[in-house]
Amino acid sequence: MELMITVAIVAILASIAYPSYQEQVAKSRRNEAANALMIGAQALERYYSANGRYTTTAGGSDLPAVFPSRVPENGGTYYTISADGTPTANTFTLIAVRRGTMAGDSCGDFTLDETGDMALKNKPSGSTKSLADCWRR
Predict the structure, then answer these.
(1) Which of 30, 66, 70, 88 is deepest in the core (most CB within 10 A)?
(2) Which residues contact 100 (CB under 8 A, 6 or more apart)?
(3) Average pLDDT, the chain
(4) CA distance 124 to 105
(5) Does residue 82 contact residue 72 with C-beta atoms inside 8 Å?
(6) How confident is the model at residue 114 (pLDDT cuts 50, 70, 90)?
(7) Which residues contact 17 (CB under 8 A, 6 or more apart)?
């Protein structure tokens, strides 16, 4: 009887703690994605300072490969980083698209542009997460 009570108490505690743990893991992965976008934007700004444009050619629409392409860089991928839309010589928007275990994350995908504007894109319907909930500041 005592063993059954102990097992029940452990089960109740686990049912309370596990969702909180999962949210903390997701928050950590979101922070990694936001950090990768900021590293990418900084690398593109350095490229712009040296070349006078964000794209590899004056009239082109390809960004140089100076930013991380996935998060994390090793192991299972939670986000892929790429250009969102068509970059120009003076503009870009980077996007971190959810992958793997983060594919159903309620924050959606993260974007960051050349002005530092942060946004969420492709949030699941019914998600109540705000920009402040998802982007670390």
Answers:
(1) 30
(2) 76, 77, 78
(3) 90
(4) 8
(5) no
(6) very high
(7) none
Confidence label for 118 from pLDDT (cuts 50, 70 and 90): very high
In what side-by-side order are the strands of the sheet with 79-83?
A: 70-71, 79-83, 93-98, 109-113, 118-121
**What residues contact residue 136 under an 8 Å CB cut-off, 6+ apart?**
30, 31, 34
Of 80, 84, 78, 82, whose CA–CA distance to 104 is shortest?
78
Residue that is written with structure tokens 């991380």 in the block:
68
Could you tell me the two tokens for 72? 């994390």
SS3 letters across 92-134: CEEEEEECHHHCCCCCCEEEEECCCCEEEECCCCCCCCCHHHH
Whole-model pTM: value is 0.84
Beta-bridge partners for 110: 96, 120
Neighbours of 94 (CB within 10 A): 24
